[in-house]
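TICKET #2291
ISSUE: user wants both folds in one file
ATTACHMENT 1:
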Amino acid sequence: MGTRLKVLNTFKALHRTRTAVFKDDARALSAARIKINEEFRRNKDERSEENIAKMIKMGSDVEAVLRETVMQMEHVGDKKLLLRPRESLLLENVPYCDEPRRKS
């Protein structure tokens, strides 16, 4: 895959993740869009393959962190927050068991 295509795929992945992570939050969506576009514009004249590869890796890592760790919260009262986790962040709650289950 060509370098330009990798950069474009990273750019698109960041924007897709941004829309999923900050859904229903216009201010965060806008701020993330501006920051992503600003970083890509700032580095658009980079010619070093090594530096481009590092930046692609950094973009992919940022996308993974956003997708796997960021959750939205909303103020619903004076001292209350409402947590709105995405479906992909919810894990099945299985209690710990010292002895493995026997298959029947």
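ATTACHMENT 2:
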Amino acid sequence: MDLLFALQSFLFLVFLSIYVYLHFYTTPPRKSTHSGFKTYPILGSLPEFLKNRHRFLDWTTEILRNCPTNTAVFFRPGKIHGIITANPSNVEHMLKTNFENYPKGERFIDLLRDFLGGGIFNADGELWKVQRKTASYAFNTKSLRNFVMDNVSFEIQTRLVPLLARAAETGCRLDLQDVLERFAFDNICKMAFNVDPACLGGDGKSAAEFMRAFDDAATLCSGRFLYAFRFILIFKKFFNIGSERRLKDSIATVHNFADDIIRSRMENNSYEQQDDLLSRFIGNDNNNSPEFLRDIIISMILAGRDTTSSALSWFFWILSSRPNVQLNILNELEAIRSRNGQSIGDTYGFDELRDMHYLQAAIMEAMRLYPPVPVDTKACLNDDVMPDGTVLRKGWFVTYHAYAMGRMETIWGKDCHEYVPERWLGEDGTCQPDSAFRYPVFHAGPRMCLGKDLAFIQMKSIAASVIQRFEVDVEDKGTCPAHLLSMTLRIKGGLPVSVRNRCI
């Protein structure tokens, strides 16, 4: 019987290989009557996916741009069926109008469960609502805003500026992306559980190990979504080999570091009268088990650390080749200092940051072209029809493509590929936000990013402090860097820069 089964399996694979060869190599792919992904018999869009997954964002952007409604149906073996859209009406439908029909879904949650557990960014239903309610209250308190501003100011004055000043004095080149990631990591760890890992300018070895492990875990988890065949992932995970072994080790390091902090805080009752997020969740009686708290905190670190550093890395790359934009920012900063009797080096307060309209427009324009979270995926619970007429079936995935949306002429006009901060400014010079469904950089609807305002506090504080003191020269500034698609959009290989003191 075993021999017969083996022979049947062998013949099946031979005939399948011949069939695939005939259709893939000797006949052109079958196209639908509309633009979209090329499809092949049985294999769907798998061959095109394998051919282009190393450039997934640009490939799918090209496809969506040529579709009548900027929406395309995608299919490949393994029950992977769904749509990818860059249509604002569809985005509003899935993120707001019919929100309950588009949860994260079991596939998304399962792929990230090892790392994020049941944290707010990997939860649906009541579990998500409980966390959202507590986090929403915390993010809307003035005490947390002041706590974040104090921490950002401390990190800038005592670590970031001295680091850049030393680089300017010695001529040493820096990886600015790495610097920004370490800054954001210190800041979000203080905000999340009031622990200073001192990754920027510090010597905390355990914290540095935690940060490296966090990096690896985020990148490897993201890679799970690009497997052509799910059984390969299952095989590697079951036998604990390759990338899955590295992922398991990285997650263990992250969890152990977070568990030690949470355990110490709970045992000593040291969370009372503190403003960090961990203290607020420990004080929540709904669920404050150590595992639940760890999942929440890891999700918060992921959101706060990777997004702001990604946005600023692309922003500084863009800025390096646009002296006119730098000049406009410098003029705005000088006007704000003059109005408030400040000098270069003084800390900007909340009101001063709020008046930085051109700087905010410049950062928002950078995120339009290089959104920190370039794609986001939901699951379709029940059959539905999108506003553009696209039909969805139960169990399909639905992905909105923020990276592609920033490059759609139908949304931003003929200059959609150009960097134009002025598109965000009103006639009075104030920064005017656009619809979150045209610009879903901070998500939209009930899952709208709670940390949006705090993110702008951090990004504007860093950008203003760096730009007014230093000239940042990016190596090979005329060439667009390759991107690394992790859970956020990072610059592949970092952002090498040289720094000079700005002549005042």
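RESOLUTION: both attachments delivered.
EXTRA DETAIL ON ATTACHMENT 2: The CA atoms of residues 27 and 308 lie 47 Å apart.
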